Amino acid sequence: QKEVEQDPGPLSVPEGAIVSLNCTYSNSAFQYFMWYRQYSRKGPELLMYTYSSGNKEDGRFTAQVDKSSKYISLFIRDSQPSDSATYLCAMSTGNQFYFGTGTSLTVIP
Amino acid sequence: EAGVTQFPSHSVIEKGQTVTLRCDPISGHDNLYWYRRVMGKEIKFLLHFVKESKQDESGMPNNRFLAERTGGTYSTLKVQPAELEDSGVYFCASSLALNTGELFFGEGSRLTVL
């Protein structure tokens, strides 16, 4: 069983739509939860970082962590064509980081 | 401020040859990580340096892989001899603090072994 499960998509939405991206995990030792955005041929870029259960908002992005269900989400409001990228969830025990396979998102103008 | 830089961006070699990848972390970042992404799979941890010391190398696939970080600055990852299954994108990341999600990634070195 993988440490982190993420639906690879691809996901295609019209501009302005709300996007929901999700990951599940099995290791209850994970303490840190991250979302990275990766454009083609580039390295992953940290978008959101949370430590505890609950919601964290940053502009159009909201990260949600539910430790009891071992489930994390990233919501993108008012999606823009520039949001088209691969979104990777990642989790850490404080030492090693474990990544999902990434969800490919295309926002159509 | 310069980000994490990796060299080369793409390397094509034949099975049995040697390749050395280089990573220059962000200045002042003691933590340096190597990751690898094989096509269609998730990014996987290879090893972690704190300054010049190997903190965790549990992700290194086998003894054909050798990572060094002399002087605690840049790091090299050598694959010798390369095998077909070593093909993938090798990412380097650095961070200032240990227990944080703030990893700063380079653009990756794409390795193709023919």
Fold and architecture overview:
The complex is a heterodimer of chains A (109) and B (114). By secondary structure, chain A is an all-beta fold. Chain A is built from no helices and eleven strands. In chain B, strand 5 (43-50) and strand 6 form a beta hairpin. Chain B starts with a strand and ends with a strand. The chains are: A mainly beta (109), B mainly beta (114). Chains A and B meet through strand 4, strand 5, strand 9 and strand 10 of A and strand 5 and strand 10 of B.
> What's the helix count of chain A?
0
Count of DSSP H/I helices of chain B: 0
Give the radius of gyration of chain B: 13 Å
Could you report the average pLDDT of chain A, rounded to the nearest whole number? Answer: 92
Ranges of chain A with pLDDT <50 over ≥5 residues? none
Percent of residues in helices of chain B comes to under 10%
Strand content of chain A: over 45%
Distance between the termini of chain A: 38 Å
**Which outline of chain A best applies?**
globular
Q: Count every beta strand of chain A, where a strand is a DSSP E run of 2 or more residues.
A: 11
In round numbers, the mean pLDDT of chain B is: 93
Structural class of chain A: mainly beta
Overview in brief:
The complex is a heterodimer of chains A (109) and B (114). Chain A contains no helices and 11 strands.
What descriptors fit this protein?
heterodimer, A: 109 residues, mainly beta, six-stranded mixed beta sheet, five-stranded antiparallel beta sheet, 11 strands, 0% helix, globular, B: 114 residues, seven-stranded mixed beta sheet, four-stranded antiparallel beta sheet
Secondary structure elements and their pairing?
The complex is a heterodimer of chains A (109) and B (114).
Chain A: E1 4-6, E2 11-14, E3 19-25, E4 32-38, E5 45-50, E6 54-58, E7 61-66, E8 71-76, E9 85-92, E10 97-99, E11 103-108
Parallel strand pairs in A: 2-11
Antiparallel strand pairs in A: 1-3, 3-8, 4-5, 4-9, 6-7, 7-8, 9-10, 9-11
Chain B: E1 5-7, E2 10-13, E3 19-24, E4 31-37, E5 43-50, E6 53-56, E7 65-68, E8 75-79, E9 88-95, E10 104-105, E11 109-113
Parallel strand pairs in B: 2-11
Antiparallel strand pairs in B: 1-3, 3-8, 4-5, 4-9, 5-6, 7-8, 9-10, 9-11
